[in-house]
């Protein structure tokens, strides 16, 4: 709990908010050619002891362990990311979502969606929109799937769709292996780091659509192109990710 600034036995909403505003989203290991381990001790070492971040599998499995330690029952679900997908495209199930039974209710929890995660859990399943720090979210049905959406100026935007059926951890391991090692995975080919603040703002450094630093709020975004040589400093100052340098191949390496 010290990693996210909490003490005692907080509620799940407190844990969720503290996690998503304290631990950055990042893919620096797959970017450097290092596969991601999902063993709980490795997640605690990396995200807690070393004060690093991670992507959805790491973030949400660490949250799962924390919530279970507080007495919650947690199922893991796999989702297909829809945001940015071409019309008619079917992406693999490479996003992890949690269903949490705690405090007399069932919750949809997710601290690992880099383009703007939920700040707090929302009731599981379809329902009315929920406002969180200026952002609006809702879940709708689309056939057999549930779809998390967020409101934009042009209307509701799909973030990801998922079956409400739990999956075994072997399926999560397989999806994680693909995401962290496949040569066409954007987490291998690209670079991304993000953090959300408790005022509702979101900052992301990414080269998925040209290397830029994006500062996003519910009222709009500011995009600033950056040079690759500046990436290590930006990682340190904006996301607390220190100890990296830029290699001659244009990829990050550990600073010596």
The strand count comes to 15
The major β-sheet equals: 8 strands, antiparallel
- Please write the string of helix (H) and strand (E) elements: HEHHHEEEEEEEEHHEEEEHEE
CATH class label: Alpha Beta
**Which topology does CATH recognise?**
Arylamine N-acetyltransferase fold
Low-pLDDT segments: none
Report, as a whole number of angstroms, the end-to-end distance: 31 Å
The tally of structural domains comes to: 1
The CATH architecture can be named as 2-Layer Sandwich
Report the mean per-residue pLDDT as an integer.
95
Structural class: alpha+beta
| Coarse shape | globular
Helix content: 10-25%
What is the radius of gyration computed over CA atoms, rounded to a whole number of angstroms?
17 Å
Strand order, sheet with most strands = 5-4-3-2-9-8-7-6
Provide a quick synopsis of the model.
This protein is an alpha+beta fold. It has helices at 12-20, 28-31, 40-49, 56-69, 169-181, 186-189, 231-239, and strands at residues 25-26, 73-81, 93-102, 105-109, 122-123, 130-132, 135-142, 145-152, 155-162, 192-196, 202-206, 212-217, 220-225, 244-246, 252-254.
Describe, in plain words, how this protein is organized in 3D.
- Strand 3 and strand 4 form a beta hairpin.
- The protein has one domain (2-184): Arylamine N-acetyltransferase fold (2-Layer Sandwich), CATH 3.30.2140.
- By secondary structure, it is of the alpha+beta class.
- The protein has helices at residues 12-20, 28-31, 40-49, 56-69, 169-181, 186-189, 231-239, and strands at residues 25-26, 73-81, 93-102, 105-109, 122-123, 130-132, 135-142, 145-152, 155-162, 192-196, 202-206, 212-217, 220-225, 244-246, 252-254.
- The mean pLDDT is 95.
């Amino acid at each position: 709990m010290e990693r996210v600034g909490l003490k005692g036995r907080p509620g799940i909403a407190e844990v969720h908010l503290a996690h998503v505003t304290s631990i950055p989203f990042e893919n620096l290991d797959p970017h450097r050619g290092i596969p991601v381990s999902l063993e709980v001790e490795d997640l605690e070492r990396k995200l807690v002891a070393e004060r690093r971040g991670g992507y959805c599998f790491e973030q949400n499995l660490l949250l799962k362990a924390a919530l279970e330690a507080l007495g919650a029952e947690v199922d893991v679900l796999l989702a297909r990311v829809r945001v940015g997908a071409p019309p008619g495209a079917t992406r693999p199930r490479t996003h992890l979502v949690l269903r949490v039974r705690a405090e007399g209710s069932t919750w949809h929890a997710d601290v690992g969606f880099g383009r703007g995660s939920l700040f707090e859990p929302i009731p599981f399943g379809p329902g009315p929109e929920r406002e969180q720090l200026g952002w609006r979210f809702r879940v709708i049905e689309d056939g057999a799937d549930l779809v998390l959406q967020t409101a934009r100026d042009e209307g509701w935007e799909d973030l990801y769709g998922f079956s409400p059926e739990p999956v075994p951890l072997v399926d999560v391991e397989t999806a994680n292996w693909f995401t962290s090692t496949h040569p066409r995975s954007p987490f291998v080919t690209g670079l991304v780091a993000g953090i959300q603040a408790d005022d509702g703002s979101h900052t992301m450094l990414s080269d998925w659509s040209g290397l830029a630093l994006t500062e996003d709020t519910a009222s709009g975004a500011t995009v600033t192109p950056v040079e690759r040589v500046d990436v290590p400093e930006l990682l340190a100052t904006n996301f607390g990710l220190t100890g990296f340098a830029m290699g001659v191949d244009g990829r990050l390496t550990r600073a010596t």
